[in-house]
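Ticket #4471: structure output looks truncated?

Reporter: J.K.
Steps to reproduce: submitted the chain below (182 residues) through the standard prediction queue, then opened the result file.
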Amino acid sequence: MIKELKIQKRAQHEIVGFVVIVLMVTIVGLIFLSFSINKEPRRQNSVEISKLLGASMYYTTNCSTTFIPDYKNGQDLIKECYKNSANKCLNGESVCSVLETDLENIIDNGLQVHPDSPNKAYKLNIYHRSLESENIADEEILKFEKGLFSNCTSQVGASHSIDVSGLSVGIINVELLVCRND
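Returned output as attached by the reporter:
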């Protein structure tokens, strides 16, 4: 009789252990399921976006501020726009407006944002970040977007930093975020 009680207690312990393991696996499964069902689009860096952004920095524009044929590339125009937004190209156009127009054309052609495309929208943000103090807010240089950031299954992006030593103590960041529906 004592032997039977020991066997029953042992069997009960094994059943309780099995139930605990099943509960733990169920809880872990529910946690993973909640992450996969999460409505927030995931953000990730994209090599494609990074290359597009990098290429746009070295694209030669039709803006010269000193003499022709010393045309500025995108990165130089960003620096000129940061130094003084009232700067003009030799043809009379504003440096910042040439920068915005050229970047918009490059990104529009590179991403092909429209309702039938996987790329539904994008946001470009160019700002200066001071390295002197953490209390100084970022200074916006240029910001524009196209399309609507709704129903994105994912958000991919990239950033490009521009050294502005000599102009200020800080860096200029160029960030491009794209809304995708794959």
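Triage note (M.O.): checked the attachment and the full token line is present. The domain at 42-180 is CATH 3.30.1140 (Ribosomal protein S3 C-terminal domain).
Status: closed, working as intended.
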